[in-house]
Design goal:
Number of helices: 14
Strand content: under 5%
Keywords: Calcium, Chloroplast, Heme, Hydrogen peroxide, Iron, Metal-binding, Oxidoreductase, Peroxidase, Plastid, Potassium, Transit peptide
Catalytic activity: L-ascorbate + H2O2 = L-dehydroascorbate + 2 H2O
Number of domains: 2
CATH class of the largest domain: Mainly Alpha
CATH architecture of the largest domain: Orthogonal Bundle
InterPro entries: Ccp1-like, Haem_peroxidase, Haem_peroxidase_sf, Peroxidase_I, Peroxidases_heam-ligand_BS
Distance between the termini: 28 Å
Order of helices and strands: HHHHHHHHHEHEHHHH
Shape: globular
GO molecular function: heme binding; L-ascorbate peroxidase activity; metal ion binding
Mean pLDDT: 84
Biased composition (Basic and acidic residues): 241-255
Number of strands: 2
Low-confidence stretches: 1-29, 38-73
Radius of gyration: 18 Å
């Protein structure tokens, strides 16, 4: 889960490169989902070279440069999605980019507004985050690096949508970091141009004056409840925040000074590439000054209704995994348009 879907991650990319011009123009706005924390690595530079050298047909790709390039608005091919999942697993092994891939999926889906009926105006996971106009939103600073990581996979498998790819990458990152199996469905339809991107300001902020109220405003708008808010916040067990990007965290701690990926930033947990319930334990105790606690994190143990779930997850990792998997799957689907309408599973 800084302005994000609870996110965000920054979730915190261990692998991505330095801030893009888009990220710099966006300013220091941070998402509570996952505050931005991309970093540079040889692995990402190699991915960028592969992206530059590939020549997919115009039908199969979108430039993301403000031009409306038609892409496939049909159901993704299940066989290609399964193959893409294997490529994502290999990417995770070499780049340690779990946090930023979670953030990518969350920020594409976290714009959903249950009060808006029409698609794509209602937001949700629709692939709109591939366009520059949305990448430049303050909460999305650094996510251009996530797009660079997954673009070669999209080029390789043109019969999958960006919306499905972003959510596949996010769920796979959680699972490969030791988290629960997410009961995902696929078949999301992509928007076709930047004019269909949502307005800025849909994602949560990391430091609002009334953190608990702010989280409820943002997540209730998406149709999520208190339990789901707290469960999704637990994704901060992954990643780190960089003050030069998000305005939050220390430049470096004993847990981040040696990477992996580019060193630096401040993590929420000591093992910030391992998914577990340590986030809740650390937030509750607040014993380690090298670990980050945002106002929206602290609110989970300060607000009476949130605290019920936060205490439960700190004591019971199995319960956290169960509730997290359900909340993540819901977040990835709300607002999305599916073809076929009921979607499909890769594990049927």
């Amino acid at each position: 889960m800084a302005e994000r879907l609870v996110a965000a991650a920054t979730l915190r990319a261990a692998a991505p490169s330095g801030p893009s011009p888009a990220g710099r123009r966006a300013g220091p706005s941070s998402s509570a989902f996952f505050p931005s924390s991309s970093s540079s690595s040889p692995a990402l530079r190699l991915v960028s070279l592969r992206t530059a050298s590939s020549r997919p047909s115009q039908k199969a790709r979108s430039t993301g440069r403000g031009r409306s390039v038609r892409c496939m608005a049909t159901a993704s091919d299940a066989a290609q999605l399964k193959a893409a999942r294997e490529d994502i697993r290999e990417l995770l092994k070499t780049t340690h980019c779990h946090p930023i891939l979670v953030r990518l999926g969350w920020h594409d889906s976290g714009t959903y507004d249950k009060n808006v009926k029409d698609w794509p105006e209602r937001g949700g996971a629709n692939g709109s985050l591939r366009f520059d106009v949305e990448l430049k939103h303050g909460a999305n600073a650094g996510l251009v690096n996530a797009l660079k990581l997954v673009q070669p996979i999209k080029d390789k498998y043109p019969s999958i949508t960006y919306a499905d790819l972003f959510q596949l990458a996010s769920a796979t990152a959680i699972e490969e970091a030791g988290g629960p199996k997410i009961p995902m469905k696929y078949g999301r339809v992509d928007v076709t141009g930047p004019e269909q991107c949502p307005p800025e300001g849909k994602l949560p902020d990391a430091g609002p004056s009334a953190p608990a109220d702010h989280l409820r405003v943002v997540f209730y708008r998406m149709g999520l409840d208190d339990k789901e808010i707290v469960a999704l916040s637990g994704a901060h067990t992954l990643g780190r925040s960089r003050p030069e990007r998000s305005g939050w965290g220390k430049p470096e701690t004993k847990y981040t000074k040696n990477g992996p990926g580019a060193p630096g930033g401040q993590s929420w947990t000591a093992e910030w590439l391992k998914f577990g319930n340590s986030y809740f334990k650390e937030i509750k105790e607040k014993r380690d000054q090298d670990l980050l606690v945002l106002p929206t994190d602290a609110a989970l143990f300060e607000d009476p209704a949130f605290k019920v779930y936060a205490e439960k997850y700190a004591a019971d990792e199995e319960a956290f995994f169960k509730d997290y998997a359900e909340a993540h799957a819901k977040l990835s689907s709300v607002g999305a348009k599916f073809d076929p309408a009921e979607g499909f599973s890769l594990d049927d």
